[in-house]
Specification:
DNA_photolyase_N; single chain; mainly alpha; Crypto/Photolyase_N_sf; DNA Cyclobutane Dipyrimidine Photolyase, subunit A, domain 3; Cryptochr/Photolyase_FAD-bd; binds flavin-adenine dinucleotide; five-stranded parallel β-sheet; 51% helix; deoxyribodipyrimidine photo-lyase activity; Serine Threonine Protein Phosphatase 5, Tetratricopeptide repeat; Rossmann fold
Length: 538
């Protein structure tokens, strides 16, 4: 809904309730509370753990008393891609949301079973309600669950209102006009936290659990969750940390501070993409320092990518397990538990790879370039199935976002058919990004006293307790490239690639201006080196 329609609909709602538009908020709330015919608006929070700029909550509040609900679904949390670090972030965010709601005298109902029994309980209690949520682009589990919820709603005569919450467009025909949809959504006004009215009564449900039922998750303190933490993160990035973002994002020595670190907040919706975009754009419009301008432009294009990649999963849910380009199903990558275990525990014998993996394990985050390198090593040099390595990384990343994750994993594993093949040489990456070996020594303590030259040349590195390289890098890379190239020479390769591009390929870069831009003819005209990379990638 655009802003004018939203305002119109809220005025209609007020008229429907028989209020004069000039009534102040408190009187208005009082009238809503006393209206016996107003039915309950059940707001099911999923990946939108905030009150501000939350279209589902905002619109629900226009229709009557609101009951906020979050369900800690055991089935979801026992999926192989779920982990304690995701739960910790989610739990922090729920506490924060609970507090924000409490300030308005509102509860946050927590369900600890699957959603359908929770809905059954609420239906028995209230007789009827309208269900509100955002449109979720999640993994296959949430996709199937939403299909079931939709059937449940039909069976019980319940209306389920799902609202978009980012740039992802549901039931999109093709990608041709997607960028202008994105611009429109991002440039619409953000919505204030609504004034909420609780129902007269609600059922007692258990408090927020220590851990989801059926899991053995232990608390793992890493990046804190919650909207307040998200706002602090955004403020510090825009005030200071982001100045050198464009140049400092590539090395793990600098990226932890220079990248925004907003990804888990966008993933759990403690901040909306639109509010982050608008804050960055406002800063860009007032910024004259060249460093800042370039950094902010790069950052804004990544917010566009966020939705661009999620849109791929929205349009092709099977990409979580099936190669995007069907011919890559023929590659003979096979599972190997021992190789996977050495890669995922940081014992490959390539110091820079091991340092990145161990840093990721400890912190729950690593920068884009290193994610790409870790994936490239697993998929090319170690020839592991991308589904296996992708699942390990999904559990390690606090910011695991299925749409971005699986699209990126496939891209870095060469299975999309529309992106240039990039086989990272981890020794060169180490030399370029950690020339003095600081990062390696920090995260691979066995190598603290090893000579610098050996840190970047594992063939001459001999340290007790540290393994020799798992394979010969050059030979493994060559073999992998040959196998991928053979698929590229298949007679149907280009025809099938065109289909992939039509459905999933990017047409245009992100707008960094409030003015409407004409779509570029080539769709890739961007001077930002990282964005140029994206034009290859997507
Ligand atoms: C193999 C692989 C897996 C990845 N898995 C995830 C994932 O599960 N969740 C996730 O959020 N990102 C993922 N990324 C993308 C990217 O690495 C992270 O978004 C980024 O590192 C998050 O840090 P930040 O918030 O500081 O990002 P910033 O650089 O500050 O960017 C701001 C925001 O833009 C978005 N963004 C940035 N880079 C990308 C990108 N390349 N593609 C799509 N969106 C982007 C993110 O939402 C990010 O929070 C993956 C990348 C690779 C190569």
């Amino acid at each position: 809904m655009d802003t004018s329609t939203r305002i119109k609909s809220s005025i209609e709602t007020i008229h429907l309730y028989g209020f004069a538009k000039t009534l102040n908020q408190d009187k208005c709330s009082l009238r809503i509370m006393n209206m016996p015919t107003t039915s309950l608006q059940l707001v099911w929070f999923k990946r939108d753990l905030r009150l501000d700029d939350n279209p589902a909550l905002h619109d629900a509040a226009q229709h009557g008393p609101v009951l906020p609900l979050f369900v800690v679904e055991p089935g979801f949390w026992s999926q192989p891609d779920a982990s304690a670090r995701h739960w910790q972030f989610c739990r922090d965010s729920l506490f924060d949301l609970q507090q924000a709601l409490a300030e308005q005298g509102m509860p946050l109902l927590i369900g600890n079973t699957d959603i359908e029994p929770t809905l059954d309980t609420l239906l028995a209690f209230y007789g009827t309600f309208t269900l509100w949520s955002h449109e979720e682009t999640g993994n296959d589990w949430t996709f199937q669950r939403d299909i079931r919820v939709s059937a449940w709603c039909r069976q019980h005569g319940i209306t389920w209102q799902e609202q978009p919450q980012n740039g992802v467009v549901r039931r999109l025909r093709n990608r041709d006009h997607w960028a202008s949809h994105w611009d429109r959504r991002m440039q619409a006004e953000t919505l204030p936290a609504p004034h909420l009215q609780a129902p007269a009564t609600w059922p007692t449900l258990p408090p927020l659990p220590e851990r989801p039922a059926g899991t053995d998750f232990l608390p793992l303190r890493q990046q804190p969750g919650g909207r307040q933490a998200g706002l602090r993160c955004l403020d510090s990035f825009l005030a200071q940390r982001g100045r050198d973002y464009r140049f400092a994002m590539s090395s793990p020595n600098t990226a932890y501070a220079a990248c925004s670190r907003l990804s888990p907040h966008l993933c759990w919706g403690t901040l909306s993409v639109r509010e982050v975009y608008q804050r960055a754009l406002a800063q860009l419009e007032h910024s004259t320092a060249t460093g800042w301008t370039r950094s902010l432009r790069s950052f804004i294009s990544r917010l566009y990518w966020h939705c661009h990649f999620m849109q791929k999963l929205e349009d092709q849910p099977a990409l979580e397990w099936q190669p995007i380009h069907p011919l890559f199903a023929e590659l003979d990558r096979h599972p190997d538990a021992e190789i996977l275990a050495r890669w995922s525990s940081g014992h490959t014998g390539w110091p820079f790879v091991d340092a990145c993996m161990r840093a990721l394990q400890a912190r729950g985050w690593i920068n884009f370039r290193m994610r790409a390198m870790l994936t490239s090593v697993a998929s090319y040099h170690l020839w592991l199935p991308w589904q296996d390595s992708g699942q390990v990384l999904a559990r390690y990343f606090i910011d695991y976002e299925p749409g971005i994750h699986w699209s990126q994993i496939q891209m870095q594993s060469g299975t999309t058919g529309i992106n240039a093949i990039r086989v990272y040489n981890p020794l060169k990456q180490g030399l370029d990004l950690d020339p003095d070996g600081r990062f390696i020594r920090r995260w691979v303590p066995e190598l603290a006293d090893a000579p610098l030259s050996a840190l970047h040349e594992p063939r001459i590195l001999k340290v007790d307790g540290y393994p020799a390289p798992m394979v010969d890098l050059n030979r493994a890379a060559r073999s992998a490239k040959d196998k991928v190239a053979a698929i590229h020479h298949h007679p149907r390769f280009h025809e099938l690639s065109r289909d992939v591009y039509r459905q999933l390929g990017s047409r245009k870069r992100a707008s960094t201006s409030r003015k409407k831009r004409r779509p570029s003819r080539t769709g890739t005209a961007n001077t930002d080196t990282h964005s140029t990379q994206l034009s290859l990638w997507d």
